[in-house]
Write the structure tokens for this entry.
Amino acid sequence: MKLALAAGGALLLALLTWLLLSGINTNASAYAETQRAFDDFALAEASIGRNVLQARAGLLGNYDVLAEAEEAMESAVSRIRLHVEAENLDPKPVEALAAAVGQYEDLIERFKTGNSLLQNSLSYVGQLSTDPAFGALGDQFAPSATALAAAILRLAGDSSPESAKSLQQHINRFEAQAPTGGLEGEAAQALLAHARLLSDLLPEVDQTLRTLVAAPGRQPFEETRELLARTQAAFEVTAQRFRVLLYAVSLGLLVIALRLGQRLWTRTLRIRRLVDANIIGIFIWDLDGRIIEANDAFLRTVDYDREDLVSGRIRWTELTPPEWLDSDERRWVPELKMSGSLQPFEKEYLRKDGSRVPVLIGLASFEESENQGVAFVLDLTERKRAEAEARESERRYREALTELAHANRVATMGQLTASIAHEVKQPIGATVNYALAALRFLDSRPPDLGEVRQTLANIVKAGSRAGDVIDRIRDLIKRAPPRKDQLEINGAIREVIEFARHEAVKNGVSVRTELADALPLIEGDRVELQQVILNLIINAIEAMSGTSDGSQELIISSCKAESGGVLVAVRDSGPGLAPATLEHIFDAFYTTKPDGMGMGLSICRSIIEAHGGRLWVSANVPRGAVFQFTVPKPGDVLQPTAGACPKRDAWS
Amino acid sequence: MTMVPWLPFPGRKASLLALAVLAGALTAAGPTVRSSSGAEPITPIPAPAGLDPRRVALGEQLFRDPRLSHDNTLSCGSCHDTSTNGASANAQDRGVHGLLLPFNTPTVFNAALNFRLNWEGNVRSLEHEAEAGLRNPAIMASSAEKALVKISADEVMTQRFRVTYGRAPDVPALLNAITTYERSLLTPGSRFDRWLAGETSAISPEELSGYQLFKSLGCISCHQGVNVGGNLSHRHGIFRTLGTPEPKLVRVPSLRNVAATAPYFHDGSAATLNEAVRQMGLAQLDRVLTDSQIGSIVAFLRTLTGAYQGRSVVPASARPSADPVPR
């Protein structure tokens, strides 16, 4: 994640940098430099044009300025050429420009050469009047000399073919009459030589001048400049596009950044809300034991105030009771370092006043620094108290239930007095009879000791049996806290039937059992389960006692419940139950019997439910009612609605 | 374009006066008169500026180093004696093989201010001149590359190049050192330059009238600018022959230090300045100059002698050419 973020950031930075650099017209300064070269060239060109005119007019002091202009031109062209080469542009225009400079130089050289002669000769003509040689010419030649000088002057001002022709005529005329010998002749020949020179030179120099002033470099200059301007414009357009792109990308990034920031802010606000709402305690810790930040809920839990927090007086190592510190260091800290978080667990903190507060705490270390992290703390004080109260209430309920059950058992046993008496009397009677028989065997001569032994053994057996019966009765009426034993349900059923057998016979009810083999052992209180079965049996017998039609049959069956526990069913062939009765039959104080308390079935259902089972009633086929209950075997969680046990034909 | 006013003439009744008027007009238009800006056609020599003294020193050493020639006999300084006039006293000097060179050796002083170099004006820069001089089989018969090999073999020189150029010797550095030295070879401070700068007493009235004559005769048409020449080419022998006919077009030589650079002309044919002035008047101006005119012009020309490193430029002592320079 971090790597991807860094790579993304670097990529973005590279993109922006690229766009920025592309958006800068990097050769703008070079172009400006070249523009200056163009300006320099134009200035030099103008300066040449101006200076050659001045030189021709004899007003230019010296030719150094022309040399400077030529050097400026060459320098400008070489700078322009550098730019053209650097930009890989068409070299033709700049070469044409360089050629034009060469042309300039040739023309200027020619001009200087011609012009210096020209000025020379004009100077000669100008000095004519002061020249002693001219004086030698005398008045005779003065007019024609003056006319020749005037023609020279005219050609100097206007080097048209007409002027040249006119000068030529004056030369010819003067030559024809000029003196040839002596001082006069020398002066005339000198004047003629200069006139001839000027006659040739003036048109030639002015031709050169015209070419120069026409600026032969103008066209290649404009072409080169246009080429560069075009190229530069193209560059600028590209750069501008990149700038627009850069702007767009930046704008996009800004929007993304704003939205991300907004999301982050929202998220922060949400988390902040959790912290500030003080629903749970939250604090930020480090492994050195410091508590860096905490909300009010946490401070309330440990009963410190914010000042304690700010001054650093709260350390979680000091909040933790000494006996917890060990497990903190051995177990939680290594696990935290390994996995970065801890599943919530319970521990205790010490309040400021030294009392203890039970808490549920969960931790997570920060991604960037595993030595720091955030923790939430739930104050478990209330929950612990509620749990304790619930436990106490449950205990009292169990106690009451046990009391009630006991009362119910005693009452039931009271109902069964006759049966119990019969049960007790029967082995006692048998003992008496065996004893009488033993006496008789002793009286016989010789006494039949074998028979006596046998009879005495029978007495022991009957006595034990009586003892067993009494034990069982005592067990049933004994008041004892419920126990959890592993028990075999069929044995418990059989014992109960023994108690009720006499009652059944008395009421003309036949009792049949359909007990399945190999039932799983169940866990529960034997006495309470027997109480339930006994209640159901007595209810069935009572239900059938009022009816006289048909056979009165009580069937007690046991089988494996579908869910894995044990299902016990008690069926009668009595009148059955009205739907209204079905609805309330397990309610407390609900009874259909004139002398009933209405507690029996209610207690039975409580007992079964305390065993994790269900007790319910339904109509028996073809008549009567069937009460069924399930008891799960150990480990079963909840008993779903169980079906009835399959009926068996065989008597067990 | 014309600056010359057209003056009507009184026909056949034209008189000396009329011609004088015309002449005045022409004179006014000529280059002999100060231009409207008041500037003289000659400008003072500037002091050398912006030169790296280490390069100058290295260039001077190379300038005097005979290893630059093919057979280690000649240095640049063999013909350009910077302790005197920047040239030699010979009409023509001799190259490495003892051959006479075709032209008189021009002075190296102020060569940096010339527009074109050589008598033929066919070299455009000092670098080209130095390079060509080394390569010319008649002069040094070597080349910049060959000279470089010899210089590079000298550890002391190599070290000096490293100190000066930050790198081992190479051809551009070699040529740059020599030409930087040559650019330092200016001779400012001549009396005429001081006069130009406003020191009216720097030249005598006679010398000043020589200057006026120099201008009025038309000499100034070619001999102008900072170097009093050196910035254009010209046919020589326009009206009468002047020395050897070749080359037809010569670069107008500078007249700076001209009093100290005899002999004169491209072939060294004029031994004295007076003679040179006389010949120039004839050949170029078609004038027979009087001795007083010549004297006046020469007086002016003597004011053009400047100083290199505070020492006035003096004529070279005559000595056989191609003498190895004592090291």
About this structure: Chain B has a mean pLDDT of 84. The first strand of chain B starts at residue 233 and ends at 235. Strands of chain B lie at 233-235, 249-251, 307-308, 311-312. The radius of gyration of chain B is 22 Å.
